[in-house]
Structure formats: C-alpha cells, structure tokens
C-alpha cells in the first residue's frame, strides 16, 4: 500500500511540475490541481496508515483499548481539500475571464502594455 | 491562563466584515464600520502590545484543548509588534479607501474582503500552530486574489494570473513541508516541534523539510530567484490595495521565515551562507530593477524587493545585532512601504498618471503635501535621524562583525541606489516644472475638503508613525533587542506554550 | 440537453438528497459526516436539478441568490465561535447542554458551528458553480 502511494505521489508531482512548466493557462491550472492532490496524498502517507477505530473513547473507559487511526492527517487533508477547492474554482473563473478578454491561452501574451507603464 | 485578548483583533475584523456583509449595497455605513473596526482593533492591538511588553508571553489554547494537541495562539513580543503595525497600516489604508477606492469596487465587496485580509494577517501573526499558519496564509491569499482582481481591467487580470500561480505554488511547498514535518515528528505545535526537531537524528530529512519551507516562504516574501511575480502584479490594483499588499503581504512571508528559521530550524553555517547570498542578490536585483522603471508603483515594487534583502540578510547573519537590525528594519519598512503606495495613489489623484516622465510641478502647486511626502521619502532612504537610518547601522555593524563583506557592500550599494531612485522620484515628480504639452487631470482639487482631508490623513498618520520610530529609536531598539533575544533563546516561548513540564 | 428521465429522477432525488444532507449534518460530531459534507450533498442536490432543468431554472426555483446565504452561515459559525467568550472560556470551546434531546441527541455549540459551515458550503458551492456555468452560455 505504502509503495503504491509513493509511486502515485511521484507520478502526481512529476506530471504536475511538467504541466506547470507549460505555457498554456489550462495546463497550469491542471498542474496546480495535480500538485495539490499529490501533496494531500503525501500527508496521508506520512501520517502513518493504520486500520483502526476513530479515537473516541466511551465515557466509562480510562484508556483507549483498540488500535486507533490518527485523525489529524485526515483533518489536515480535509482542510487542504477545502482550501484548494476554493483556490481552484477562483482560478478557473479568473482564467476564463482572462481568456474571454484576451482570446488566448498563452501565458507569454499576458503583457498588455499600459499607458502609464513601461 | 485564559486570555481571549490575544484573538480580539482577529475577532474584531471578523465581525466588522460580517456586519458589512449584512449591508451589501450601503457603501457609506460600510466605510464608517471599516474605520471604526480598524480603530478598535488598533486600540486592542496597542493594549495587547503593552501587556506583552510588560508581562511577557501570553498564550491561549483555542477550544480549551491543551497545548501540543489543540491549536494554540501565542502573543510574544514579535507577533504582538507585528499585529500592532498591521493595525496601524490597516487603519491608514481603511481611511484612504474611503476616498481612494471607486464605488463600483465597494459595491462588489471591497471592505469585507479587506477586513478578511487583515483578519488573516493578524491570525497568522498570532498563531502558534504550523498548520493553522497555513490556513491563515490561505485566508490571506484568497482575500488578496479577490482584492487584486476587483474591477477586472486587463492588466489587473494579467497580474493576477502570475500572482495566483506563484502563490498557490508557494502554498503547495509550504503544505508539503508541513506534511513531512508531521511525518517525522508527529506534532504541529510550533513550540513542540522546536523541541522535537532538535531530537531528530536524521538531519538530512530535517534539512530537506527546511528547504520546502524556505522556498514556500521565499516565494511569498519575494526573495531573489522567486520575486518576479511581485513587480508584475503589484502595480495593477488600486493604490489602497497595493498599499496593503506592498506593506504587509511580503512581510507576512518574512515573519513566517523568521519564525521557522529561528524556532524550528536553526540555520547552520551552510544555511547562513545561502541566506546571505539570497539577500545580496535580492538587494542588488531589486535595486537595479528600480533604477530603470519610470512608473512610480513599479519603482516601489522593486524597492520592496530590494529592502526585503536587508531583512533576509539579517536572518542570515543570525547574530543578535543582525536580528535586532532586521527586526527594526521590518518595523520601519511596514509603515514606510504602506505609506509610499498610498502616496502613489495620491499622486495619481493629483495628476492622473504615475509615469514619472509625465509628472512634475507638484511641489509648486502643493508645497505642504510635498513636504509631508518628503519626510516619508527621507525616512525610506534613511537620512538620520529618520527611521530607515538606525536599522542599517545595526545591519552593517553585524555584517562587519561576522566578516561578511559582500553583504556589507550590498547593503551600502542598495542604500545608495535607493537614495538615487528616491532623489530621481523627488526631482521628477515634485521639483521638475510641469510638463508643458501634457494635459493635467487634477482629480484632487474638485474634491470636497472633507474628502481631501481623508486622503491626506492616512499619509499623515503613517508619516508621524515613521517619525515616532525614527525619533524614538531608543524605545524601538529596546523592543527589537528583546525580540532578537526571544529569537535566539526560544525556551521562554516553548515553556510558555507547553507549560513548565 | 433535457432528458425526461433525469428530470423526473431529480424531482424525487432533490428532497431525498436534502434530507440526507441534514442527516449527515446531525450525525457529524461523532461519526463520519458533518457540516462540510452535508453542505456538499445539499449543493449537489441543486446541481443535479440544474443539470436536468438548466441553471436558469434552478436559480428561479431558489428565489434568492445562493451568495446571500454565505454571510448568514458565517454569522452563525462566528456566533458559535464567540459564544464561549461570554462564559469566560477560550474562543471556540464547545458548550453543551446537560440533557440530550430526543432524535437529535446532544446539542452544543459545535452543532451551531456545523450548521454555519453547512450554510456557507451550500452558498459557496452554488455561487461558484452557477457563475461558471452561466458564463459559458
């Protein structure tokens, strides 16, 4: 399981970086999404994967008796997913606006000179 | 001890933003709420600063979970100083926004988002949990995206694409770092981490993690190879927004850099060399970039980059004097840079352009305003006894003590180029006669006196803060000295957070 | 693209999904679920409706703009966060009533917070998806 995840993370990071280095805005966006997913799986992997119960104790017990799964990585991933959901949707809207205004997908063309610029 | 005072500034900005969201179409009440909220949070931040200054580090366990398990908020002198400075800058910007931001932008929700941004900044300064720091960073980033694109002109959107791509990338680096850190230590509390990282035997993993943090925060604070998004986006939004960005956002990156590399990873010789090289390159590239630009805000953007080098260099030298100088410079820089972007907005209001070639004759027409601006420009350059002068003395002294001549030379060269750029700005914009064949669009004269006052007042507030910092340098040095002590000896921090176990 | 099968299915699925989302919201404190997931499910119910009938139709059915619900949710969550301060406890401490209420179970400020999250998530997701899908046409 761990080894599989390691390869998955590697593939996600590699393709994410490759896509970010392209000139197309859509690929940039896809690259960012892939990198985000890679990071989330990395947190999941490094938080040690154990099959266990949720760490909620019954009120009449002093110590937890079963094996419990660490809930923190899941909380972190959930937060990260929520955040990247917000960021990604904002990025989609932004890139769509840019595309609608400029009619191009090429990042190198994003240098419209301004009157007061230079 | 239960002390909700620590998060009071965060809560004030949160509730201000919420109240404004309930009044979506009413810009005047939003404006008043915004100024009132900023004033209140300034007073609370001042009280917090006094409390921490006299009583030592305060902590609060959010949701009443004990320290290494729950999220803890910590107000040590460094963070409470940053919160205080943020509040001053936010107050000034919120007053300026009342006049400097168009009604269309306000209707779109400028004020609530501005308050969410400031809330995020305050939260990031006060949190003692590394993942919570990431969340606050994201609050700041999302709000800054919206502020950057409000209005939706083409250059703004183009700037926003670059800003967005780089900042999301920085967050990924940061998050990856946190993931690895949790994997090797099993903790997220910064005080707990600082103890646990010191015990990790495999130093190469620790160093690798440190690199993730360095790159992540490096992008945010715009250091040498990673700064190029800054000059290509900061000149696009309205001046009030650019002032918050220029004054505070990069400084958040610096704050995080300082926190991480004094508390979590103590830099070894190699890391110090890396920091020094980054600092020198940042100073020089920023300064040279500022030389060739003619748009005022682009010049200022490069000057931000240049001066970030000074602070990073202070971290790289890592001696007490250097940290003192760097912290002092940070304090001075937040106020001055915010003010400079507000001034750029004022100049635009006066003349309708920010191109230095087309400007001129402002001194002849508005001598009093020009003199006020001169104070700010002088303190940026660091003419004694104004605020930019003292930290540079400390930085140069520290650099000479640790025989880091390259950094000394860079600081001196960077200061001279700043002087040259500022002199050029002053003579082109203020002293030079107005350009004859240019049509002057003066949007300032027809304004009512009250609105004129609202535009000058924030610049006055920040300029007098700069004067206070410069003339009261002894007090600021005392504060910076204690902050530097806290950075070098982190035991008070860790024992305050974890309790004396 | 208006398929009658999807239309009649979504007419029945909409209330069921909304009910399921409330179920997820209420069981969220100790079991998998909670405000975020519940909110997503509720938002998906409306998104399904918009697939079947078109975005304009769904917006007409909702009457209010989905973005109007965001501040309400934020305020509910903020109140839940701020409430313990009035009792002299740190921000965000969970407050619980003494006796459980039938069906719903124990009620505390955590539930209030979750309801806030639920509303915010519905508002945000619908705002984003409607913005994106309306701009396409």
From TrEMBL, chain A:
InterPro entries: CPA3_antiporter_subunitC, NUOK/Mnh_C1-like. Its main location: membrane. Belongs to the CPA3 antiporters (TC 2.A.63) subunit C family. Signal peptide: none annotated. The keyword RNA-binding does not apply. This is Cation:proton antiporter. It is a multi-pass membrane protein. Keywords: Cell membrane, Membrane, Transmembrane, Transmembrane helix. The chain crosses the membrane at residues 6-21, 28-49, 75-95. GO terms for cellular component: plasma membrane. It is found in: Cell membrane.
Automatic annotation (TrEMBL), chain B:
InterPro entries: CPA3_Na-H_Antiporter_D (IPR050586), NADH_UbQ_OxRdtase (IPR003918), ND/Mrp_TM (IPR001750). It comes from the Bacteria. One of its GO terms (cellular component) is plasma membrane. GO terms for molecular function: NADH dehydrogenase (ubiquinone) activity. This is Na+/H+ antiporter subunit D. Belongs to the CPA3 antiporters (TC 2.A.63) subunit D family. Its main location: membrane. The chain crosses the membrane at residues 6-24, 31-50, 70-95, 107-127, 133-151, 163-185, 205-228, 240-258, 270-292, 299-317, 323-348, 369-390, 405-423, 453-471. PANTHER family: NA(+)_H(+) ANTIPORTER SUBUNIT D1 (PTHR42703:SF1), NADH DEHYDROGENASE (PTHR42703). Residues 129-418 form the NADH:quinone oxidoreductase/Mrp antiporter transmembrane domain. The keyword DNA-binding does not apply. It comes from Dyadobacter luteus. Keywords: Cell membrane, Membrane, Transmembrane, Transmembrane helix. GO terms for biological process: ATP synthesis coupled electron transport. The lineage of its organism: Bacteria, Pseudomonadati, Bacteroidota, Cytophagia, Cytophagales.
UniProtKB/TrEMBL annotation, chain C:
Pfam families: MnhB (PF04039). Keywords: Cell membrane, Membrane, Transmembrane, Transmembrane helix. GO terms for cellular component: plasma membrane. Residues 5-127 form the Na+/H+ antiporter MnhB subunit-related protein domain. It is a multi-pass membrane protein. The chain crosses the membrane at residues 12-30, 36-56, 68-97, 103-132. NCBIfam families: PRK12509.1. It is found in: Cell membrane. Belongs to the CPA3 antiporters (TC 2.A.63) subunit B family. This is Na+/H+ antiporter subunit B. InterPro entries: CPA3_antiporter_subunitB (IPR050622), MnhB (IPR007182).
